[in-house]
Amino acid sequence: MADYLIAPSILAADFARLGEEVDNVLSAGADVVHFDVMDNHYVPNLTIGPMVCKALRSYGVTAPIDVHLMVKPVDRIIGDFIDAGASYITFHPEASEHIDRSLAMIREGGCKAGLVFNPAAPLHHMEHVMDKLDMVLLMSVNPGFGGQKFIPHTLNKLRQARALIDQSGFDIRLEIDGGVGVQNIGDIARAGADTFVAGSAIFGQRDYKSVIDAMRAELASAR
Ligand SMILES: O=C(CO)[C@H](O)[C@H](O)COP(=O)(O)O
């Protein structure tokens, strides 16, 4: 089993102080910066683009930046995020005309590639591209907004995705996003996730370190 990674979603950060917020959450023990890109078309919200990713790199952020594209179409923006310093780029299969090609573009650009599945989206799209995946991200809320409740049936889907990944023999991270907090992270890990996106649970507290420490304690007992 891969190491557990905690990936705070900057969607819930104070955007007026974004560089400082990212520094603070990384100093508090986070592993990865989760970067939500929304286009007001694929999802009903509008957030940040490659300029902000590039600005974080110029500011000095060296941690992996995990870019989740909630954008349709995806191909036009992939190159901009590669140039902006993204580490992971993930997209929704229904937002790509040619899934295999989009994944290949990401990897050819030197980034890690992943597919994202909404709560009601079937997993079958991953089966034919296992060799091109570094990450599978399961949404445990409908995408577009932070602060929503974890949808419980995602736990079964995590078990299914974990089985598919393990059967494939490829080194693919299994990430979960939406409504993740100290209270449910242990159950989520036991269902097979190894990478945990949390926005409001972390940035909604004053002391990021105590939340991340509490998450790590839950994860340690889930092993
Ligand atoms: O992608 C997202 C929404 O589309 C967010 O990353 C996700 O919802 C995390 O926020 P929270 O932890 O507050 O639920």
Overview of the molecule:
The protein is α/β, with parallel strands linked by helices and 223 residues long. It has a single domain (5-222), classed as TIM Barrel. It is 36% helix and 18% strand. The protein contains eight helices and eight strands. The protein has helices at 18-27, 50-59, 75-84, 99-108, 154-168, 185-190, 200-203, 208-222; strands at residues 5-8, 33-38, 65-70, 88-91, 112-117, 135-139, 173-177, 195-198. Strands 1-8-7-6-5-4-3-2 form an eight-stranded parallel sheet. Strand 3 (65-70), helix 3 and strand 4 (88-91) form a beta-alpha-beta unit. The radius of gyration is 16 Å and the shape is globular. Bound molecules: ribulose-5-phosphate.
Mean pLDDT: 97
Distance between the termini: 9 Å
**Distinct helical segment count:** 8
Globally, the shape reads: globular
Based on helices, strands and strand pairing, what is the structural class?
A: alpha/beta
Q: Percent range for helical residues?
A: 25-40%
Range of strand content: 15-25%
Q: What is the β-strand count?
A: 8
The H-level CATH homologous superfamily, spelled out, is: Aldolase class I
Order of helices and strands: EHEHEHEHEEHEHEHH
